[in-house]
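Work through this:
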Amino acid sequence: MTRKYIIRRRKNTILYTEFLIAAATTAILVVIYFKLHPAIGIIIGIAAVFLFAVLFFANRFFRYIFSILFSLGWAVGGFWAGQSLDKKTDTTARVFSSIAFAVSIWAHWNHFTFLKEAKMYEYEKR
């Protein structure tokens, strides 16, 4: 009996960091706006990590939206970092923002093309 497997190990820690950031944000917003107990917020945050991971790997549309939104978030962070270095002009901030956005999109690119570039290996189990 022949089975097909996709064999490739992905190392993209920025993605898991973003899952944790999104889950922590979700937990904090649930506690603040819905006035829930912080322990329930932590449980919702833990569930959100798994929900974001499942949606990211299962749904292509969610993957694109998630990646673009977080890339924009990293760009905003880069803009703030650039503004803190040079308060007279926005040029440094815009350069930092562009670099942060480009690096974030590049880091996510592996997950966009993973199934297209995967190699299939066939073997028989004995």
